[in-house]
Amino acid sequence: MKFSLFLLTAWTALAVGASAAVRIDEKLLGEKLGGWTKRGAKAAEYPLSGASYRTYKPEVTPTPEGGIFISLRIDHVRGWLSSDDHAILEITVNASGVIVSAKSNIAIQGRSIASDVIRGGTGAGQKLTGVDHAVQIGTDLVADLSEKMLREKIVEAGRVSFPAVLRHNYNLLFQAIRYEPDPKAETVEGEPVVQKPEPPPSTNANPSPSKLEIKPYDQPQVDLPVQKAE
Questions:
Q1: What region does 79 belong to: left with phi over 0, alpha with psi -120 to 50, or beta?
Q2: CA 177 distance to own-chain centroid
């Protein structure tokens, strides 16, 4: 029991310390969306493609790998006499600040349209940078959602544009990711690195020269002073 509690405590400390290096610049995201001025300063509203949308402040939690998981709610604002449509955009960022996966779910008139988990797979021998990988994930996410909405025969303007609105928010989230490594958070197998203390300095700055002791075999001890260098 004690060992399990120790492992849990060590894992929690490691995850929190590591996730501190990756965060979302919530202020910048709000400015890009027009400001957190709606729903008690918790949401931003903006026009896009001839319709109105509302984005709420992101929910961010640390992952066991040291990254962060972001959940973003987006509403299609349809007016007083119509119920709004809703969408959830989920993004996972690794400990280096790179987006590794994304997923979305759109709810329209009681119907739910969910994308696959997009991980941005690459071809054999192909290497992508963090930016290229994020661009590919965003592109594949919109394509997957658009295809599934087409199957549902959704034609209303504001609803058809929902995948593009998700991509808009995805791009702004990417710009708001901040990676700030903390050199003080270095760990080895979940335990903090302990610096070895340096030996204390000598209290005798100018020690006097000692005598050289010569002890010949079977002869009495003779003490000779050490000659000082000229």
A1: left
A2: 7
pLDDT at 157: 83
Any residues with CB less than 8 A from the CB of 97 and at least 6 apart, and which? 21, 22, 67, 130, 177, 178, 179
Residue holding tokens 């400015």? 31
Which residues have CB under 8 Å from 60's CB, separation 6+? 23, 24, 68, 69, 70, 71
Rounded CA gap, 212 and 222, in Å?
Answer: 9
**Percent of the chain having pLDDT more than 90?**
53
DSSP 184: G
H/E segment holding residue 44? strand 43-48
Residue pLDDT, tens place only, 68-106: 999 999 999 998 788 999 999 999 999 999 999 999 999
- Residue 17's pLDDT is 46
Inter-residue contact 144 to 116 (CB < 8 Å): yes
Spatial separation of the C-alpha atoms in residues 103 and 92, rounded to whole Å: 9
Give me the helices (H) in 84-222, please: 130-151, 157-160, 162-176
Cα–Cα distance measured from residue 109 to residue 76, given in angstroms and rounded to the nearest whole number:
12
Q: How far is CA 186 from CA 122, 152, 194, 195, 205, in A?
A: 32, 51, 10, 12, 37
**Number of Cβ within a 10 Å radius of residue 26:** 13
